[in-house]
Please model this.
Amino acid sequence: MARRLIKAAHAIGDRSITDTGNLCHNIYRLERGTVVPGERYELYYCHAFGISPSEYGIEKTQIEVPVGDLAMTALDLLAAELGLQRDFNGQTLIIWNE
Model:
């Protein structure tokens, strides 16, 4: 995969892409879900997989949950544990992935 990403970068003239060792580490982190690629790398992945940018990635979802104080605490902790974004507007906890 790292070699394919480098090939995709070189195809559009980007010679500043990192080496295979660093890319392998970043791919490992991506597969574990600890990072997400930036737009530049998303385009390289699309090129490497032969897909359009609209087909790339996980579909973004949003959940809105009316909550009381106790439920707010539990859902807030759950969102933090799962690495999800969250916002509380006073009555509803909104949780989404990015």
About this structure: The mean pLDDT is 76. The CA atoms of residues 5 and 45 lie 6 Å apart. The beta strands are 62-66, 85-88, 92-96. The helical segments are 2-11, 20-32, 39-49, 69-82.
